[in-house]
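Researcher: Go.
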Amino acid sequence: MMTGKFITLEGGEGVGKTTNLSFIKTTLEQAGIDLVVTREPGGTEFAEKVRELLLQPSNEPIAEMTELLLVFAARAQHVSTKVRPALEAGKWVLCDRFIDATHAYQGGGRQMNQGVIDALEAMVLTDIKPDLTLLLDLPVEVGMKRALARAALDRFEQEEVAFFERVRDRYLARAQSSGGRIHIIDAEPDLDDVQGQILNALGHLGVAL
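Model: Structure:
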């Protein structure tokens, strides 16, 4: 039985996930919550090795199905050895990207078969799903400008603008059909405004912050 809460942070490139993940972590810990912070792909020693395979630019073209299966292989390890045990122990889990990223990047960006993604999701996650997802949203051109100013681009960040437009569209579509689980955070205003939106969304979990 799950007794902890599962929060995920999502968004395209350059939306400020790293800064705001740190803010959420501090906010929840100051509220006295026993928190595990993790990320996908990755989160465990083995899954981090898969992350390297996924993100490093490669001279060999990587088949879309290879990419999708690697994502779910890392997720299976992450969920079984870190996420599920933490939730069952009553801890809260804060994760930088999770299943919605797969629907956005592989489903939207790569335009892969939705039925295949849904089948893998059912097998790997079973009863695990986020209680709250914060979707940091920016126009693609703004996010990419921020990403370019930040560091060398990984394999995904090197995709064309049209790819990221499809990613954003899929994220927003999932938010609209999520029944309130996914809260869209406008990441374009100044940081205080963005973090005010985040605090408001966290309030839906019923914790005094």
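Model: The first strand starts at residue 6 and ends at 11.
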